[in-house]
TrEMBL record:
<keyword id="KW-0472">Membrane</keyword>
<keyword id="KW-0464">Manganese</keyword>
<feature type="domain" description="Sulfatase N-terminal">
    <location>
        <begin position="30"/>
        <end position="320"/>
    </location>
</feature>
<keyword id="KW-0479">Metal-binding</keyword>
<keyword id="KW-0812">Transmembrane</keyword>
<feature type="binding site">
    <location>
        <position position="254"/>
    </location>
    <ligand>
        <name>Mn(2+)</name>
    </ligand>
</feature>
<feature type="binding site">
    <location>
        <position position="193"/>
    </location>
    <ligand>
        <name>substrate</name>
    </ligand>
</feature>
<comment type="pathway">
    <text>Cell wall biogenesis; lipoteichoic acid biosynthesis.</text>
</comment>
<keyword id="KW-1133">Transmembrane helix</keyword>
<keyword id="KW-1003">Cell membrane</keyword>
<feature type="binding site">
    <location>
        <position position="38"/>
    </location>
    <ligand>
        <name>Mn(2+)</name>
    </ligand>
</feature>
<feature type="binding site">
    <location>
        <position position="255"/>
    </location>
    <ligand>
        <name>Mn(2+)</name>
    </ligand>
</feature>
<protein>
    <submittedName>
        <fullName>Lipoteichoic acid synthase 1</fullName>
    </submittedName>
</protein>
<feature type="active site">
    <location>
        <position position="80"/>
    </location>
</feature>
<feature type="binding site">
    <location>
        <position position="80"/>
    </location>
    <ligand>
        <name>Mn(2+)</name>
    </ligand>
</feature>
<dbReference type="GO" id="GO:0005886">
    <property type="term" value="C:plasma membrane"/>
</dbReference>
<dbReference type="GO" id="GO:0046872">
    <property type="term" value="F:metal ion binding"/>
</dbReference>
């Protein structure tokens, strides 16, 4: 009803009103390039296997970037599309199905729309069929001026599910060179998609995965290594074009890579043992995340608990935007980490709730704590879920706009 709608809108407005001013608008006018990496789980960064780095290019970039070590993915049934949504809108994915299919008709506040308000040209690129995840409709709803699907790329090299990341990145930079500045360019990679099979046998020897050869984990590491090489090319091309020095560049992973059934092999890779506890499993559901600033003035490692809903608020502040309906936090102005997922887990900087075991665990020690002493966390989880659901399911921004007419 009307009161519920007002309450929800007010809750968001209140939440997003107390903006601290650190870095506010500091990068206004700079281009923004956001790269969403298919299945880039956090543990690949700075990891070596048999002495060989899996992601040397990202590792090198990380040294001069702001890196979030505890950045959780919050995706649900909408997989890749949920990550796009969380990062560009800062609301949770749908409780069933996918926002991209079910709520493409909603009115959204989004990063692209807000930047457009500042005169940015906004573009999204992903070299797959435009119908996949209902992207054609949803990218319009998110306010992108331009959508470059596989139909706009020369499919000259295949790796994994479609156009190779290497060719994708090279062609993407060519396209960006022609864009009016400033621009926001959102790129979604494809090559490192499950099941990480190398049908063309091009990356079979890209690295020696030893005991993981022939297993999903081994195939995955090779796929990641391949994409990391492509990222190296991408960065070089951006530097050559002059765009690198004039853009904030973000790299983050979209969702899980290793399915639960393969957790024994993952345990081997991560801890050299044969199984993972629920606590270890849940606290590894993180993705790579780093922001590179053109002046390299902001860098280092942030260990607070963060997640994909936090990207939009963070970028909004840097670009001097003041959106009011975001669920996440500005990572540079608020260090009270809090994330939640659709499977019922949540975490702040100190505790993680494991839904499967109905246990609240202290992250530092891995020990269970008394839930009754932390009811505020459970309340927060309930409130966040409820407010996000209402925004989407009742299309509240549309309601608000109608109301104002
Ligand atoms: C498809 C790609 C994969 O275009 O984005 O989506 P996913 O299956 O990972 O959700």
């Amino acid at each position: 009803d009307e009161i519920e709608a007002e309450n929800t809108l007010n809750w968001f407005e209140e939440k997003n009103s107390n903006r601290a001013l650190k870095y506010f608008g500091q990068y206004k006018g700079k281009n923004l390039i956001v790269v969403q990496l298919e299945a880039f789980q956090g543990f690949v960064l700075n990891r070596k296997l048999n002495g060989v780095e899996i992601t040397p290019n990202l590792n090198k970039l990380a040294k001069n970037s702001l890196v979030f070590e505890n950045y959780y993915y919050q995706t649900a049934w909408g997989g890749t599309s949920d990550a796009e949504f969380l990062s560009n809108v800062s609301l949770l994915p749908a409780r069933e199905g996918s926002v991209y299919y079910q709520y493409a008709g909603n009115l959204y506040d989004s990063l692209a729309k807000e930047l457009k308000g500042q005169g940015y040209f906004t573009s999204v690129m992903h070299a797959n069929r435009p119908g996949f995840w209902n992207r054609t409709n949803m990218y319009k709803a998110l306010g992108f001026d331009d959508y470059e699907s596989e139909q706009n790329f020369n499919i000259d090299e295949i790796q994994g599910m479609g156009l190779s990341d290497k060719s994708f990145f090279i062609q993407a930079v060519e396209k960006m060179k022609g864009f009016n500045n400033p621009f926001y360019s959102f790129l979604i990679t494809l090559s490192s998609h499950f099941p990480y099979k190398d049908y063309q046998n091009k990356i079979a020897d890209i690295m020696d995965v030893g005991e993981f050869e022939g297993d999903t984990v081994g195939d995955y590491l090779k796929a990641v290594k391949y994409t990391d090489v492509a990222i190296g090319t991408f960065i070089e091309e951006l530097k050559k074009s002059g765009l690198w020095d004039n853009s904030i560049v973000v790299f983050y992973g979209d969702h899980a890579a290793i399915p639960y059934e393969k957790k024994n092999k993952l345990a081997k890779l991560l801890y050299g043992k044969n199984d993972l506890s629920t606590f270890e499993w849940v606290t590894n559901q993180k993705v790579v995340m780093m922001i590179h600033f053109p002046d390299e003035k902001i860098k280092g490692v942030d260990k607070s608990t963060a997640g994909q809903m936090d990207l939009y608020p963070t970028l909004a502040n840097l670009y001097g935007l003041e959106p009011k309906y975001m669920l996440g936090r500005d990572l540079l102005n608020n260090n009270e980490g809090f994330i939640l997922t659709r499977d019922g887990n949540f975490a702040d900087n100190n505790y993680v709730y494991l839904k499967a075991e109905d246990k609240l665990v202290e992250i530092k020690s891995g020990k269970e704590v008394d839930k009754s002493k932390h009811q505020d966390l459970f309340e927060r989880y309930k409130t966040y879920t409820d407010k996000s659901n209402k925004m989407i399911e009742y299309d509240l921004l549309n309601y608000k706009t109608d109301d104002e007419k």
